[in-house]
Amino acid sequence: MLSTLFAVANWVSPAVDYHAIAPEIIVAVGICVVLLADLFIADRSKWLLSTVAGFTLLGAFIPVLTLALSDVGPRSLFDGRYVIDDFSIVMKGLFLLSAYVIVLLSTTHIEEGDYYQGEYWVLMLSSILGMLMMTSSRDLVSIFVALEFLSIPAYMLAAWRKRDAKSNEAGVKYFLLGVFASAVMLYGMSLLYGVANSTLLSDLAAEISGELTAIRVLAVVFVVVGFAFKVSAVPFHTWAPDTYEGAPTPVTAFLSVASKAAGFVALVTVLYVAVPGASDVWQPLIWVLAALTMTVGNVMALRQTNIVRMLAYSSIAQGGFILMPLAVAAEGNSSAAVLRSVVTYLIVYAATNLGMFGIILAVSRKTRSGEVASFGGLFSYAPGIGALATIFLASLAGIPPLGGWIGKFSAFQAVLEAGTTWGYVLAVIGAVNSVIAFGYYGNVMREMWMRPVPNGDTSPIATPAPLKLALGITGIATLALGILPGVALHFGDIAVFTSAFGG
Amino acid sequence: MDILRDHNWVLSVGTFLPLAGVLVMLFIPKAEEQLQKAVALITALATLGVGVYTLTLFNYDRAGEMQFVAQTNWISVIKSTYYIGIDGISLPLYILSMVITVLVMIYSWDHIPSPGNPKAFLMLMLVLQTGMAGTFISQDLILFFVFFELVLLPMYFMIGVWGGENRQYASLKFFLYTMFGSALMLVAFLALFFKTGAESFAIPYLVEHGGAIAKNTQVWIFAGMFIGFAVKVPMFPFHTWLPDAHTQAPTQGSVILAAVLLKLGTYGFIRIAIPMLPHAAREWAPYIGLLAVIGIIYGALGCLAQTDMKRLIAFSSVAHMGFVMLGISTLTSFGMNAAVFGMVAHGLITGMLFFVAGSVKERYHTLEIARLGGMLKQVPHLGWILGFCVMASLGLPGLAGFWGEFPAILSAYSPLHGLSEGTFRVFMVIAAMGTVLAAAYLLWLFQRTAFGEPKPEFGGPSSDSHGQHDHASHDDAHHSDIHDVTVYEWVAWTPLLIGIVVFGVMPNLLFKLIDPAVAAIVSHIGG
Fold first, then answer.
1. A107 vs A138: CA distance, rounded Å
2. pLDDT higher at A189 or A456
3. d(CA B242, nearest CA chain A) in Å
């Protein structure tokens, strides 16, 4: 007992590179500010909170920029358990910017409801903080903490409209399945720890290689399955449509973009840093998951009449495309191309999908409906929104020269670079799926361009300023990424992890 | 300075100028319809002006080489560059796309199809023009793919919004077919890229190194490209989108589709699939030839069964593109010359036929052949123009159609060394029978619509105006639309009519341009 106390007394704080964790610190401060301010400001001034949240995110983006521009190589903190390298900087930038767009999307929606505004922003910022931590975590424990940090506020956000049964259903479903996934993953992690006697990812890599014993295989499978829940891969996707439909629309945008991206970040980190040696186990597993996810997501999306539900299935299918290259990550020299493809896809998908949710928010302000049919004749009375929606949908469908195509293209490229038969088969499955996908994206376009306006109501759509700004940002990003795809691909060109596969 | 790189800005300007017009139109209010039309037309004319300037700069003595070559970084990470150039094969098609766009714009001046909105309609057309021109000048597979896909959405909306009754079905079918093809094509492009050492997407590079790929692999990669291009051509059995798309599309859409878009597929075969994968091309050639002649006969029989004029012309496209593909499948310089000529000729003639069909529809409010008749009496100019196009389409010597069709048939007599002569001679005989069928259905069409007396419902002689006072007002409404060719139509059509005669009388104008470029491509197969 005494010795423990002595040990504590001798504890010296590790050297902390405050520049490296400045984004996290700024967001943490922002959370406290919003939380405290919420207590003291009057209801009619609550709009200030969204401004604070937005500026917090932009403020946190500044150190991300300075980190990106600094010449210091990867910064490693806490014995290599928290690393700020190119990958984490790019992903942090992506999370902060998409979160900013989500703040813009939410602002009016949140102010117009009579629910708790302060809590909304606190929860959202907390979840973002979890995502920022996720990008840098290189230790099983910090990965798990970050994952819970980003998930738990998200559960609450999904159920944010607490007097709405559907929103409650969304929250509960998301919570129960999310917790179940965490449990499965945690079990896998405990096995990994048992095998390697360390939670540091780089230590695991040394232990999980060569001839794998059953327990190692089991550990890897459990961890991958846990993440499969998070990224809503089929057959672990069942929570997604209900949650997406029931949650408030801005929250759905948040879940389908940021939260999903965080799941992929964690998955990529674990696969590339911790268990590259077990690629014989996870490659086939991800192959099957990717093929199923693309196909089932697309086929189910074809049947949807509610646009949010359709986008939910579409985002499942898009997740399949992001998973696709990971199925060949360890083949030949493909690991760099695979990482590039995942990052690129996440960037263009974020821009496009957020834009599409912005469109849904704008249109539903007028129509008060989530049905695809409510988009009827949109182009005839709101050509601007109609044209933007067309751009987003075409980008999601992967039609050049819009952002989405470079995501799809880099995914195909990565899969084919592996040069294996399985890679080719998966690419063909992906190609067929990208055609199926047009069936439902095209259906919405058809509603907008070719169908009559429901009830002949051609009153214009009043788009509030923040929503306009969000649509502008995402629209320009979607176009620019498609015409100058080098930009997105450049961000994806990260060499940090790929050495793990030994070339 | 390298003569082939001189003035290399002309191609970029010619390709992207329409987009500048689109930008200007964005800021003009929708209600200013005349201004919109004027801006669109001026843009198209300016683009054509750049095209004509390109023609004057083009070095005709070196038509076999890429000229106005420009290459700059674009997506360096995946080794794709902005690489453009033009040779004797691309040039006629590139100019054709510009001419057609201008003519269609002129035609649109007083023919904006329902439901109106010329702003969106003309903007889409300009985007389409960029896509078409860009496809013909791309020297990089990724760039080619982007332009190839760029034409999809505008066409989809053109058919789907401004089309006929079944427009939604037709537009979706068009889109899904084409997209299915291009998705597999993209996979094939990537496979080719990696099999040649993942060095470059530049077409010349891939042409040089593609031949070294193992034959079996080539055959598979070719299969992917084949589906992509064959859907676009369209070849039997991938043609089923075409009659629907053509029938439902507005006149302008049909014209562009027939005159230019279909050529993207055949152009892809000549420029990409065959020179890059010569071994696979030899393996595939008999099958391509077979599908081509099936297309010829099937298209012709399909025509004979049609009751709708536009649908008939659409099926005739299937047959004509069959001749083009037959020429390509011989893999000889002779056959490919015929094919490229056939592409241009078909563009002029079938484009013209669709113009006529559109105008007939506008006047008679129907394209049902059985209800039409006596056009020569009622609208003599329109009737004779139809007659002229019919003659050109069935391959009358002295008009452009002949030089696409006849040499294509002839080329099948002696295909590339190594291909089965017997098989191709059978194809030749069948294709020749196809021309007889073509004469049959085209003349039959002309006879039924143009000869005889106008039908009573359109004011023919048997309608007794004394006894039908009740219906007088209704009939008047019907007849008042029936008038002869208008000024806008004359302006839009004359260049095509002149082109059909000029290229018919002096085919060498075109052959001289095509031949060296084709020879350069064939040299990769023969080796």
1. 34
2. A189
3. 18
- Six token digits for residue A293: 């996810």
- Can you give the pLDDT at residue B474? 47
B267 falls in which pLDDT band (50, 70, 90)? Answer: very high
Paired tokens of A370: 């989530």
Residues of B within 8 A of A446 (CB-CB) are: 160, 168, 171-172
Would you state the pLDDT for residue A378? Answer: 87
8 Å CB contact between B392 and B399 = yes
Task: Please name the amino acid found at residue B425.
Answer: R
User: Which residues of chain B are within 8 Å of residue A450 when distances are taken between CB atoms?
Assistant: 160-161, 167-168, 171
Q: How far apart are CA B506 and CA B518, in angstroms?
A: 19
Which pair of structure tokens corresponds to residue A230? 């998070």
Q: What digits encode the pLDDT tens for the residues A241-279?
A: 999 988 989 999 999 999 999 999 999 999 988 888 888
B38 Cα distance to chain centroid: 26
Region of B455 on the Ramachandran plot (φ > 0 left; ψ -120 to 50 alpha; else beta): beta
* pLDDT (mean) for B452-479: 59
User: Is omega for the bond preceding A14 within 30 degrees of 0, making it cis?
Assistant: no
CB contact under 8 A, B191 and A399: no
pLDDT at A456: 77
Give the pair of three-digit tokens for residue A374.
């409510």
Q: Quick: pLDDT tens for B271-291.
A: 999 999 999 999 999 999 999
For residue A297, what are its two tokens?
């997501």
Q: Is B498 exposed, middle or buried (0-12, 13-18, 19+ CB in 10 A)?
A: exposed
Joined tokens for residue A371: 């049905």
ipTM of model: 0.83
Residue that the structure tokens 């990958």 belong to: A87
What residue of A is the nearest CA neighbor of B75? Answer: A486
| pLDDT (0 to 100) of residue A495 | 61
Per-residue model confidence (pLDDT) at position A346 = 93
DSSP assignment of A350-362: HHHHHHHHHHHHH
Mapped onto helix, strand or coil, the DSSP state of residue A208 is coil
Measured between alpha carbons, how far is A481 from A499 in angstroms, rounded to an integer? Answer: 28
Give which of A361, A386, A366, A369 is closest to A450, Cα–Cα.
A386
Q: Give the DSSP letter string of B373-404.
A: --HHHHSHHHHHHHHHHHHHHTT-TTSHHHHH
Token pair for residue A167? 């929103």
- Distances in whole angstroms, Cα of residue B28 to Cα of each of A351, A462, B32, B39, B121: 28, 21, 7, 10, 14
**Residues of B with Cβ-Cβ distance to A380 under 8 angstroms:** 115, 117
* Pairing label, strands A75-77, B67-75: unpaired
Residues, chain A, total?
503
Closest Cβ–Cβ partner in B76, B167, B194 for A419: B194
Q: Is the dihedral of CA B432, B434, B435, B437 positive or negative?
A: positive
Lowest mean pLDDT among A113-117, A215-219, B259-263, B279-283: A113-117
State how far the Cα of B194 lies from the Cα of A333, in Å rounded to an integer: 12
* Nearest CB neighbour to A446, from listed B168, B179, B193: B168
CA dist B81 and B70 (Å) reads 10
Greater model confidence, A342 or A11: A342
CA separation for the pair B369, B447 (Å, rounded): 10
Helix (H) or strand (E) holding A223: helix A214-230
* DSSP state letter for A200: B
Q: Tell me the two tokens of residue A17.
A: 């590179």
Nearest chain A Cα to B176, which residue? A435
The pLDDT of residue B373 is 84
State the number of CA atoms in the 13 A half-sphere of A174 facing the CB. 34
- In chain A, which residues have their Cβ closer than 8 Å to the Cβ of B183? 431-432, 434-435
Alpha-carbon span A356 to A393, nearest angstrom: 7
Determine the pLDDT at residue A366. 84
Whole-number Å distance between alpha carbons of A405 and A482: 7
Residues linked to residue B72 through DSSP beta bridges, in sequence order: B82
